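Box 3.1. Reading complex inputs
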Amino acid sequence: MTRRDFVGYGTTALAMAGAGELLSGCATTQRAGGPGGGSDGPSNSIGYFARFGVDETLIRETLAAALSRGGDYSDLFFQHRVATSMALEDGAVNKAFTTVELGVGVRVVKGDQTGYAYTEELTLDAMRSAARTAAAIADGPARPGPQRLHVYKDIPQRYVLKMGWDAVRPEQKLPILEGLNSAAFKADKRVSKVTLSFSDEHGAVLVADSNGRLVEDVQPMTSLYLSCVAEQNGKREQNTYGVAGRAGLDFYSTDRLDRIVREAVGRTTILFEAVQPPAGEMPVVLAAGSSGILLHEAIGHGMEADFNRKGTSIYADKLNKSIAHPFVNIVDDGTNEYARGAINVDDEGNEPGKTMLVENGILTTYLHDSISAKHYKVKPTGNGRRESYRYAPLPRMRSTYMLPGPHKQEEIIASVKRGIYCSNFSNGQVNIGAGDFTFYVKNGYLIEDGKLTRPIKDVNIIGNGPKVLEKVDMVADDLVIDEGGWTCGKDGQGVPVSQGIPTVRVASITVGGRNA
Amino acid sequence: MSTTNTTNLADVARQAVDLARQKGASEAAATANRTRDVETQWRDGRLDKVSEATTRGLSLQLYVDGRYSAVATSDLRPEALERFITDSIAMTRVLARDEHRRLPEPEFYANRTAVDLSIEDPRQATLTAEDRQRFVKDLEAGARATDKKGAILSVTTAFGDTLREMYRVSSNGFEGGLRGTQFVASAEVSAQDPDGRRPEEGDYAVARFFEDLPDAASLGRRAGERALGRIGSTKGASAVLTMAVDNRSAGRLVSMLLGPMSGGAVQQKRSFLDGKLGQQVGSGLLVLTDEPHVKRGLGSRLFDGEGITARSMPLFEGGVLRTYFIDTYYGRKLKARPTSGSASNLSWKLGSKGQAEMLADLKEGVLVTGFLGGNSNGVTGDFSLGVQGFRVRGGKIAEPIGEMNISGNQMDLWKRLVAVGNDPYVNSAMRTPTLVFEGVQFAGV
């Protein structure tokens, strides 16, 4: 309801997005067909979606119906997604979830107005009916649809899998879960409960628009979360570590699996020694990696062009102005191979690149979908994304991170007399216009006289985007893109994103601790 | 509530259960659903976006040789569905056996009341595009009418109406359907703060019946007032203060109390309320019941997601925890009788005063009107939440504050509940009144 946008980690994000118990599922269905993507010649232009009876005639007739009331532009977004997850609880992989989504969304744009409809029936009647519904945003004479469709081939392939998730048998996943479970119990005697969730997706999207452009992309995804409860002297603590990427089964290397156990158990057991830090303003050092949540909330959402086009973002009048120290460079990048936030093509069929949000401290580019790009008379940046065929696209982040800076991690920590160091986070949120944002710290340390001392836990940090960016006064050279499974929520739609940052110092921000 | 016109869904669910049994499931339950959704969005004097669709789907719980999976699909083509069920059963066979996974005992389906919940408004079927557009237009006008100084930058309003139908069938004798409508109206207003910030606030209303929505102009006016009220907000000093939480925002606190009441959280040792049944968790003013049969209630139901017959259930009496939300599975694991895995409507023992009188009693403190991010650790009860609202001075609302935070532990917070309002928030199934807590840690400057 309110224009508050958030990012969250794993199930936190799902709960905040109002989604069900577990969104994901397992790949046992729909074995047919090879990889999608373009193929040769107009007679054979539909790859993946041909299996559902989608052909050029169906697309052209639907687009014609979509433009029957004089819309400027229309696109169709076909999606097939099979999501499976297997869960381990109390020592056994004893539940699995599968969700199959198949449908098409029809969007009609007139100026900056949007008509939208969708259907799960990929038949001419159902699609034409949805198209006529969406068409009603306009009220004029019909415009012709495309006579020919041009298949976009040769789009970059950033997540080619040796074996798609549709070819992985459930038996191949079980040993991973069972191995992690016993390793977690073995890692520390205090561990008393372990739960695991292993999710994977296979499927594809097809975008066809009234300019005759047609592009398909096969989009895999996987994630794995290990959550454990530990007990010590009658006290309990719990924490989670997760990894995610547009990757296949080989993502789960021995190294990565070892790290999952080490991090989940270590982040849990250290909480027995942890305190909530004092309340009030103080210097905060953010560890390299998932602290990129700062960028997502403090600037990323505010740079989404829809908020600026409407004049409702705190950054609406700051383009080409200096907003941070000159060593601050922030990008939103769809091109990192196998990253959770990577895309070969956005959900409007545009190619994503590496978009500079802040270059040498100067605000440079908003994140655009096609509607805002037209408004600002710039090229779309490939940020038009949507949760599924049930939603119209919006400008959304992909992988948002800060480039390395001139300082060293040790000198940054050593520079703080009294403050905190934050290393792990669960969720964050922002008010786009006022600029206030928060992020919730699960693990960190007090800094006393330039040294990390007592562990801290469970504290929310609150700041104001532009004010905090001005106060980022040290940036280290140790950029890490976090491997965690972040989901960004906006207007009720969740999309997968990545984030990263080098170690940075924020000179002063409000820490929501206790005992001021 | 009625089962008319759900025949089609009933057939889909029955056939899916039959098919699952034919393909090797020993037990199965299926829920077929269909939702018609229309949303009209208006921005700054013109139509911004209209979306409209009827979506459908089928979800199944499969019990195969003592093994379990839950699957869902929107692809209902007969061949695709048959293959989906076959493949899902094959996947289920690979899992570990789980003796606790069975359908609910049929006794829990019994004694379903015949009460009319009145959750379907026939008006939804006759609303026209013009009706919807008039509403969103009037919402904007209401918001703009509050703007005497030209501070409003943008107004986005929306009207959504939904008809949701579901029918559930289980292989051990449950059948039941539900049809309900819901209307949502909202206005989001951005204002220009002279210091460059563009605070946004708004208001919304949710109702089962169109006639229960407030009129568009007054809802819009409240949205405008809320947004303009944010102008000039400052960060207050860190301090321990009395906190009033308005009825719209209080649901955030209540949801962090209800989460750890789930049977799954208790069984998995992830709940600070584990072992607290029958113990004092809140002050004597925390008196809360789960009440499924509220007429026109947003969370009203005759049976829950598993088919368990819904009944009124005390949650807290005089601050003492009376029950957990226990579904069939965790009930078996905990050796406890299932209650229900989820809440329906909450019913509070209300106080006698409205917010203004409560603030007059409070004298000095903070009125929280919104939370921003933050979280609560369900295992320990520790929480830390971003807040905005107003200082209360001399019993009256004073300057706006923001960019602040509250922290504490829930086992402490709920005992500090010193006043409950007479103003349940009807736009949420949690129906929270204004709540006042003493001695809350605020962080700011």
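In summary: DSSP finds ten helices and 16 strands in chain B.
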